[in-house]
Amino acid sequence: MPKKNQTLGEFIIENQQDFAYSSGELSRLINSIRLAAKVVNHEVNKAGLVDIIGNFGETNIQGEDQQKLDVMANETFIRTLTNREIVCGIASEENDDFITIAGCDNDHKNKYVVLIDPLDGSSNIDVNVSVGTIFSIYRRVTPVGSPVTKEDFLQPGNKQVAAGYIIYGTSTMLVYTTGNGVNGFTLNPALGSWYLSHPEMNFPETGNIYSINEGNYVHFPQGVKDYIKYCQEEKEDRPYTSRYIGSMVSDIHRNMIKGGIFIYPKSSKATNGKLRLLYECNPMAYIVEQAGGKASDGFRRIMDIKPNELHQRAPFFCGSKKMVEKAEEFMSNYEE
To answer: What is the number of other CB atoms lying within 10 angstroms of the CB of residue 284?
Structure first.
C-alpha cells in the first residue's frame, strides 16, 4: 500500500521491483520527466507576467497554430531527456518526425522510447485554464546498438511500459502508471518536491458527468447523438451533468476522481477523429484502464489498435466502465 505524502523519489525506489525491467533506466526516465515538468510548471505559472503567451507564429505537423508555451514545453522535455541520455528516441506531437538519440559514445545502447504531447490544451493558456503534458514510454523493438526506427514508435498501446500526465492547475500533479495501478503526486512549489497525494487512483464504476464538445453535435455520428440524448433524459439517475473544459488532461482527471465519461468522437469534419492515437489516446487509455476504467474508439479497445503512422488520429471514448459500455451500445447500432 503506497504511503501518502511519500515523495516521488522514495516511491520510485520502493516500487522499483514492480517495473517490467528493473535495470534502473525506467526509474531515471520518470525522474527526468518530473524534472522537466517542474521547469514547464514554472513557465506556465508566470505566463501572465511575461511575453510567452499567444501564438508562436508557426503551425505544427497537424496544421494547428503553435503557442509559445507549446514550443517551450516541447524543447524542455526533449532537451531534458536528451541530455540525460536515458532514451534512444523521442517522438513529439509538435515534431514532424521522431528524434534519434545516439548517446555519448554513439552506441545507441538505451532501451526506451518516449512519445509526448508537451502541452495538451494549449489553446486555453491565454485564458488561464488548466493545461497538461501527456507521456508514453515503450521498450524499443529494434536491436540495442542500432539507431531507432519508426517501428519502435508504431507499437500498439498494449505494449506500453509506463504512461502518465502532468496537470498544471490550481496545484500541479503528476499522475502515472507502470502497469501496477495509478498514483498521483502533487508538487510542493516551496520545496520543489512531488508528494504522493492520490494513492491508488480509481474510476468509480459509473458516474453522472459526460464530457464532450456539444457545439459539434450536428457533426457527430448518430450513435454519439443518441448517447447524448440518453445522458440528457429525465430518469431516476439522469440527466447527467455536462462538464467540458477543452483540455483533455483536465477533463479525464476530473472524471477519474468524480466518475464520468470523456468523448472525442470522429465527425463529419474529422472523419478519423481528431486526437492523436500515439500521443494522447494510448497513454490516457493505459492510465484509465489501470484505474479500473475503459477506453475505446467506440467499437474496439484503443490499446489494441496497431498504428501505421506517427500522427495517426482516432476517436476516443474513455472513463467509468459502465458509462463507456453504455456509449458503445449506442455506437453498436451503427456498425462501421
So the answer is: 29
